[in-house]
Design brief:
The protein has 369 residues and is an alpha+beta fold. It has three domains: 127 residues, no CATH class; 62 residues, Alpha-Beta Plaits, CATH 3.30.70; 89 residues, no CATH class. It has seven helices and 21 strands. The strands form seven sheets. Strands 3-4-5-10-7-6 form a six-stranded antiparallel beta barrel. The protein has a four-stranded antiparallel beta sheet with strand order 2-11-13-12. A hairpin with a 4-residue loop joins strand 12 and strand 13. The radius of gyration is 33 Å and the shape is flat.
Length: 369
């Protein structure tokens, strides 16, 4: 008996020891304030197309842009010249500048047609300055556009696979200007949680304080956590690397049910529970059937005329409607099994969940997107 109790105790202790393995790292729960991508945008031209460029009569900005570019290269286009451009397309170029980027590094760019070009496949993007929100040039983009789609047309018929009016240039832009970096300038690192939660913010703060040498952490609100660390970029980078690997035992989160009214999808997390209630779910259908019948005279010489008379039948059907009991459930599997037992479609399930929330038997936040 004592051996059995000892073995049971070892299994129980091993189970508790294994619990921290399910903890989440701070790097998965929060991000560092100020460390983010910056959007860049530019306007340029793609040349070298195989007759699939913009129609200049409908997109005059393409001709104007080409004229301005040629004038900068020392070529003057006579006024009133009607250039019929078929191999040129006006495009918008977008990119994301990663944090801590340095001059000379390359980034990927996305090229999208803004005119009526049929395809930019096989084209070359001319040098395009990419600007930030402050209207300053931070990168220059140029290169051959890679389009993942394909298309063919002949005799009025066409076949298109994927999108031909947009492409991508890998390492197509070179960074020319660096962003000002204030990381760690005042000896403070601000962590921003992905989801606002007072309990989680306090748990993250306590987990950092329990680690020696990582500074003093304090939760400012449900999303922001301030960490006071020693000055100096090298020490702060080392401290932040250690902070991001600290594991936090995440407790129960807010129970949520997300309903997408456009697609009819319903998603719920594991903390959703149900209280006992009764649900009556039935379908009422009205069917209107109209058929046209031809009425002819009995004798050809009777002077009558052949007429068409409509015959309309209206029927009302109601199926289901039985009052079903929904038992209280404390796990996601039981909740799903209970809702499936109602036999409701996703569209009906949205109405049922809304009614459950109003009745107080759905223990979750209902969000409709």
């Amino acid at each position: 008996m004592r051996k059995f109790s000892t073995a049971l105790l070892c299994i129980t202790l091993s189970a508790f020891v294994a619990l921290p393995a399910f903890a989440e790292r701070i790097r998965d729960l929060a991000s560092v304030q100020g460390v983010r991508d910056n959007a860049l945008i530019g306007y340029g031209l793609v040349v070298g197309l195989d007759g699939s460029g913009d129609q200049t009569t409908q997109t005059p900005f393409t001709t104007q842009t080409l004229t301005n570019m040629l004038s900068q290269l020392g070529i003057t286009v006579p006024a009133g010249t009607n250039m019929q451009l078929k191999n040129v397309a006006a495009v918008m170029v977008t990119a994301k500048m990663p944090p801590f980027s340095k001059s000379g590094q390359t980034i990927d760019v996305v090229v999208s047609s803004m005119g009526n070009a049929k395809s930019i496949r096989g084209g070359t993007l001319l040098m395009t300055p990419l600007k930030g929100v402050d209207n300053q040039v931070y990168a220059l983009a140029q290169g051959n556009v890679l389009v993942g789609g394909a298309g063919a047309s002949s005799g009025g018929s066409s076949v298109t696979v994927n999108q031909l009016s947009g492409g991508r240039i890998t390492a197509g832009a070179t960074i020319e200007r660096e962003l000002p970096n204030t990381f760690g300038a005042e000896g403070v690192i601000n962590l921003v949680l992905n989801d606002e939660d007072f309990n989680l913010a306090q748990q993250v703060s306590d987990a950092i304080n329990r680690q020696g040498g990582l500074g003093s952490a304090s939760a400012l609100d449900a999303r922001n956590i301030r960490v006071m660390v020693p000055r100096g970029n090298s020490s702060q980078v080392r401290v932040l690397a250690q902070i991001q690997n600290v594991e936090v035992n995440v407790g129960p989160m807010d129970a949520k049910v997300i309903i997408n009214s456009r697609t009819g999808s319903v998603v719920m997390n594991r903390d959703v529970t149900l209280d006992s209630c009764a649900v009556a779910q039935g379908n009422l259908s009205v069917v209107v059937d109209r058929q046209n019948e031809v009425s002819q005279p009995n004798t050809p010489l009777g002077g009558g005329q052949t007429v068409v008379t409509p015959n309309t039948n209206i029927s009302v059907r109601q199926s289901g409607g039985a009052l079903q009991q929904v038992r209280s459930s404390a796990s996601l599997n039981n909740v799903v099994r209970t809702l499936n037992a109602l036999g409701a479609t996703p569209i009906d399930l949205m109405s049922i969940l809304q009614a459950m929330k109003t009745a107080g038997c759905l223990r979750a936040d209902l969000e409709i997107i």
